[in-house]
C-alpha cells in the first residue's frame, strides 16, 4: 500500500522556533487577591504564635458554639492599607476555629489539633459583622515535631518547628504589603512584638500562595474575550475531557464565562514558569440584575497563580515581581487579542480603569503559526513511531490514546495486552520526544492538544486502513498468551519490540514480579548510579523494583 508521509518529514519537535515577541504598551492590570505564608520557628518561646492564638481562643471564646470571638479593634489611622470603615461601623478582628488534618496519638487515642482564623471585619453598633472589599485574614497552624496524621504517619515540617501563618488579603501590590498586614493582625490580636516575629521568621518559608492581576472591562466586549479564551484553551488544552472543562461545568451558569488552567503558557510565547496559571473571565453573581452603570455589572479578565505541580516548592516572596509580571502580560495580551483597549476598561472603587498607568509588556505574536508548526511536527513523529519495524506495539498504544482521547496505564494494558513495563517504557519515550504527555495522578496519557489528537487519528487510520478493533483485540490476547507460556517474562522486548528497544530497556513487567524474579546486588551490575536514577525518573523502572537496605543507615528512612 502507499502512504503519504506528513509534509514536514524533517521537522523536529525540539527545534521549533520560539514565538515572536513584540514590545507593547497598555494600561497595567491591577493586583487583586494575594496570599503569602511564613513559618515562625518559635517553639522554644514561652508561647509560640500558635499556642498564643490557642490560648486566646479559650480566653475569648471558650466554646465553638460561641464563635466568632472578637479579639481586636483596629484604628484605620494606624494602618495605611485600611480605609475608613462604613459610617456607623468599626474595624475588628474575629477569631474562629476548625479541626485540622493533624494531631497526636493514633486510633481511638487520636486527638486532632485545631486551626485558627483571624479575620478582618466591619462591626456595627449592634455587633453584627460585615465583609467588605478590603479583606484580610490569617490562618494559624501548628508545626510541632510530635504531630501526626490519624493513620499514624508523621506530619512533614518543611521549615522546622513552630507556627505556620498564612495571610490572605486583597488590593496589595507587593508581597511586602501582604506580610506587613500579617504582622499588623498578629500584633493587634496577640500583642506580640514585631521584632520578635521578624527574628523568628524562617526566611525560606516565605512563599507565595496566591497572586492575581485583572482588568474590568465593558460587558459589550465579553463575547470577544470569551472567544479569545476559547481559542487559547483549544491551543494548549489537553486532549479529551480536560480539567478545564470539568472545572467549568462546576461553576454557576452566568458567573464563570470561560477558564483556562494550564502550565504550558510558554507554548504561546509567555514566560516559562514552574507554576500553573489560571486565566478566567467572570462576573459577579446576579450581575444581570445590577444596573449597567454599576461596575459590578461588568466582567473581569483575571490571571492568577494557580499552584505548582506535584511536590514543587511555591515561589518565594522575592519572586513576586516576576510572578505578577507574567500574570499581567497574560491579561494584557488576551485583551489585546480581543480588541479591548483602554477606553473599554471600567473603573470601580479600587482601581481607575481607563485612568490606570501605562506599562510595557512583551506581547506574543504569531502564536497560531508557531503552534501549527508544532502540531505538524507531532504528526510526523506519530507517523514514524507507528511504523516502527517488526512491531505494532507502539501503533496499538497510540491507537488507544487516540481512540479514547487519553488513556490510563490500566486501559493501555487491557487494550494492547502489553506488559505494564513495556507500556511505561514506550510512553516515557513518546513523552520525551513530545508526541504525548503524562498528566494527573494516576497517570493519564494524552496527546498535547486537540489539534495533535485529530491529526494523529487521521495518520493512524492511514497507516493501517484495514486494521479493525477485532485485530487489536487478537494481538492483545496473543501477547498475553505468550507471556503466560514463558517461565520468566522479564524483558520489555518480549512484547514484540524492535532491537533498539531491547537494547535500551531490560526491566520486568509489573504483573510478573511476584514469580521467578531475579535480584542482584547493585555493585554486581554493569550499571552506574546516574543510570539507575535516570531509569527511575523516566519510569523505565518502577519504585518497587529497587530495594535499599535501611537498618544500617537511619538517614535513608
Description:
With 557 residues, the chain is α+β, with helices and mostly antiparallel strands. It is built from 14 helices and 16 strands. A hairpin with a 6-residue loop joins strand 4 (89-104) and strand 5 (111-124). Mean pLDDT is 82; it is low at 1-16, 238-254 and 493-515.
What structural keywords apply?
3-stranded antiparallel β-sheet, disordered N terminus, 16 strands, 31% helix, alpha+beta, 14 helices, 557 residues
- The value of Rg in angstroms is 28 Å
DSSP strand content: 15-25%
The dominant shape is: globular
- Largest sheet data: 11 strands, antiparallel
Could you state the order of secondary-structure elements as H and E? EEHEEEEEEHHEHHEEEHEHHEHHEEHHHH
Spans with pLDDT under 50 lasting ≥5 residues? 1-16, 238-254, 493-515
Helix content: 25-40%
Number of helical regions: 14
The total strand number stands at: 16
- What structural category arises from helix and sheet content? alpha+beta
Mean pLDDT: 82
Q: How widely separated are the two ends?
A: 58 Å
The quaternary state of the protein chains shown equals: single chain
Which helices and strands, and how do they pair?
Blueprint: E1 20-27, E2 30-40, H1 49-60, E3 69-74, E4 89-104, E5 111-124, E6 129-130, E7 136-143, E8 162-170, H2 175-190, H3 194-200, E9 207-216, H4 222-236, H5 243-249, E10 256-262, E11 275-282, E12 300-308, H6 320-338, E13 358-365, H7 367-386, H8 393-404, E14 407-408, H9 409-416, H10 420-432, E15 437-439, E16 444-446, H11 450-463, H12 469-485, H13 499-504, H14 529-537
Antiparallel strand pairs: 1-13, 2-8, 2-9, 3-4, 4-5, 5-6, 5-7, 7-8, 9-12, 10-11, 11-12, 14-16, 15-16
Helix pairs in contact: 4-6, 7-11, 8-9, 8-11
